């Protein structure tokens, strides 16, 4: 087994919320044994911070289940590992789906099946979950409900797939050598990105780490890119140009690995000002902001082949003084539109 964690702990995010029997009261009872009573729950905008799993279920999941009664959860990656601080994490990647039968967070009902990506990280102390960090791709739902509040994405907007190898659910023995190799590959790549300030794009040596046919799966609002040039066109150029003074926060960063998969969470993982032009169409300004990002990588033959990235874009806009949900209301108040 890939982890010494109790199997029930392993399957709470993956199995108990899956399929067609999403029972809120059952989850509360199950969670009593899995979560510490004062677990720190950190969710994306607009949910914020909560204490304990019961508040999380009442605040986040109950309204979602009201809007999507046939809610299902489909995990595509489940992995466990320790970061360099010896903190143990369980990372889950996938999507929620079902028919959006009622409005949710001012997003209008569609009557059709929708999909919403999630990246969720659970930190364990012994057998108890003591922290949750989660980003849901709410803008993805806005797009499907035809109330898109942002500028057009530079990348491809689609239903982002799971691993092309279909091996993201790690319920088998851990290969320690492969785990170490994967961890070092992503760590070296991230460190190499820091060479941009002194040597530009060439100094980052992207082709040393990224497969020629790699896929970068960004959040709705940014989109996906194919290959190194696709990654640069979709995200990196605008990101670097728009925020040249960005500074990483190693204390908040947690990198962990299992076999050929690597996960990273930063809450927040970076601080900056949007002082340049080009990123998401946002006008340059001098407001300091932080950025939350939860990532997964799949490595193949010593190269990065796939990278799933979710950024809490709604939190970015809130820090800039933009109420995205008010804009959604404006877009949907005319019933004839």
From TrEMBL:
<protein>
    <submittedName>
        <fullName>Polyketide cyclase</fullName>
    </submittedName>
</protein>
<dbReference type="InterPro" id="IPR032710">
    <property type="entry name" value="NTF2-like_dom_sf"/>
</dbReference>
<dbReference type="GO" id="GO:0030638">
    <property type="term" value="P:polyketide metabolic process"/>
</dbReference>
<dbReference type="InterPro" id="IPR009959">
    <property type="entry name" value="Cyclase_SnoaL-like"/>
</dbReference>
<dbReference type="Pfam" id="PF07366">
    <property type="entry name" value="SnoaL"/>
</dbReference>
